[in-house]
Design a protein that fits this description.
single chain, membrane, about 190 residues, Put_Na-Bile_cotransptr, NTCP7 protein, transmembrane, transmembrane helix
Length: about 190
C-alpha cells in the first residue's frame, strides 16, 4: 500500500510479559507455599474471580461506548455480531470434526473439552493485550468492540449447545462401553 509503520516490539513484548506471564508465575509459586492453608480456609476465589471479570467487562464497555470518537452505526454492529457468531460456530464445528475423526484417540469427554476450551477466549486477557499493543491509538474503543461481542457470544453459544453436546457425549460413551465389553460365550 506504500505505507510503513514501526512497531515497538520490545516494549510490547515486555509489557505483555509483565502483565500476563509474571503474575501467572508469581501466582503458581505462591500457590505452592500456601496450598495447605488454601485447602483449609477455602477462600471464595470463584466469587472473587467472577466479580473481577464482571468489573473488567463493565469498565471495558464503559470505556468503549463512552468514547465520543466511536463511530459505529447499528448496521455495522449487526454485521459484526453476525460475523462473530459465524466464526465462533465455525471454529466449534471444525474442532468437533477434527477431534472426532476415526483415527483420533480422543474420548467423547476429551472432544467436549477440546470444542469448548479451544474456541473460548476471555476479555481478561484480550483487553490488556489490546491496550498494550494499541496504546495511544485513538480508535482503541472501536477495535475492542469485536472482543466485547465475542466473549458474550461464546458464553451464549456454549450455554445453548450444552444440552446437545451432553447428550452426544453420553450416547457416545455408552456406545464405546458396549463395544468394549467382552462377548459372553455362546452355549450350544
Amino acid at each position: 500500500l506504500g505505507s510503513s509503520s514501526s512497531v515497538p516490539f520490545t516494549s510490547i513484548f515486555s509489557q505483555l510479559f509483565m502483565t500476563v506471564v509474571v503474575p501467572l508465575i508469581i501466582g503458581q509459586i505462591v500457590r505452592r507455599y500456601i496450598k495447605d492453608w488454601l485447602e483449609r480456609k477455602k477462600p471464595p476465589f470463584g466469587a472473587i474471580s467472577s466479580c473481577v471479570l464482571l468489573m473488567i467487562i463493565y469498565t471495558t464497555f464503559c470505556d468503549t461506548f463512552a468514547n465520543p470518537n466511536i463511530d459505529l452505526d447499528k448496521f455495522s454492529l449487526i454485521i459484526i455480531v453476525f460475523i462473530i457468531f459465524s466464526v465462533q460456530m465455525s471454529f466449534m464445528f471444525l474442532t468437533f470434526l477434527f477431534s472426532t475423526r476415526n483415527n483420533s484417540s480422543f474420548t467423547p469427554a476429551d472432544t467436549v473439552a477440546i470444542v469448548f476450551c479451544s474456541t473460548h477466549k476471555s476479555l481478561t486477557l484480550g483487553i490488556p493485550m489490546l491496550k498494550i499493543v494499541f496504546a495511544g491509538y485513538e480508535h482503541l474503543s472501536l477495535i475492542s468492540v469485536p472482543l466485547l461481542i465475542y466473549h458474550p457470544a461464546q458464553i451464549l453459544l456454549g450455554s445453548v449447545l450444552v444440552p446437545t453436546i451432553k447428550s452426544w457425549m453420553v450416547s457416545r460413551q455408552k456406545a464405546l462401553k458396549l463395544t468394549r465389553q467382552p462377548k459372553a460365550p455362546v452355549k450350544v
